[in-house]
Amino acid sequence: MRTHGHKGWKGRGGWQQADIPSAEDAAAWFAGRLPDDWFVSAPEITVDREEILIVGELSPLTTEFDDDAAKATAESGRISRFREDTREHRIEIARQAEHRYQRKVAWGARVGGKQERRVLDTLVDSGVARSRSEALAWAVRLVGQHAESWLGELRDAMSKVDDLRAQGPDLD
């Protein structure tokens, strides 16, 4: 529940702007609330007026990979497993935090070189958006504006690949 922009009755003084509760203790609250085995170190906690973002480092991969693409795929798989295995517990923690701090809670995870939420973070860090929720709205609008031309270019490229395949040797 967001409270900025919401007015509440303040006794004899009349209506006043409701304050969003301080989240200065959010890192400590999450440190006490998160299971010890989720992350290899204390997660990064970022707080703004609308959202609390928790980004944690998952345990590293111990397998050797033939190339960076295989490693990136394994890292994505590790993040997906974490998200699936912890979903219900994360929802409950987020519900409690949203009640306490009156901000939405978002989760991110990283392992090795792979981190979720990089696109939104980049838009916020560059000043294109003020918050992750605004960054998401911006990205959705951009996709909507350019989807048809981009899909047309993709179809053209796929057609060229089909033409090149047809010109190649017949392996049958």
3D structure, described in words:
With 172 residues, the protein is of the alpha+beta class. It folds into two domains: 1-115; 117-172. The protein contains four helices and six strands, in the order ββαββαββαα. The strands form two sheets. A four-stranded mixed beta sheet has the order 3-4-5-6. Strands 1-2 form a two-stranded antiparallel ribbon. The radius of gyration is 22 Å and the shape is flat.
Keywords:
alpha+beta, 172 residues, 16% strand, two-stranded antiparallel sheet, disordered N terminus, 2 domains, flat, 4-stranded mixed sheet, 6 strands
Alpha carbon gap, first and last residue: 63 Å
Shape: flat
Q: What is the helix fraction of residues, given as a range?
A: 40-55%
Order of helices and strands: EEHEEHEEHH
Largest sheet report = 4 strands, mixed
Q: Report the C-alpha radius of gyration, rounded.
A: 22 Å
Q: How many DSSP-defined strands?
A: 6
When the domains are counted, the total is 2
Count every helix, treating DSSP H or I runs of 4 or more residues as helices.
4
Give the strand order, joined by hyphens, for the main sheet: 3-4-5-6
Mean pLDDT over all positions: 79
Low-confidence stretches: 1-17
> Which structural class fits the helix and strand makeup?
alpha+beta
The percent range for strand residues is 15-25%
Fold topology:
Elements: E1 7-9, E2 15-17, H1 26-33, E3 44-47, E4 51-57, H2 68-101, E5 104-111, E6 114-115, H3 118-125, H4 132-167
Parallel strand pairs: 4-5
Antiparallel strand pairs: 1-2, 3-4, 5-6
Helix pairs in contact: 3-4
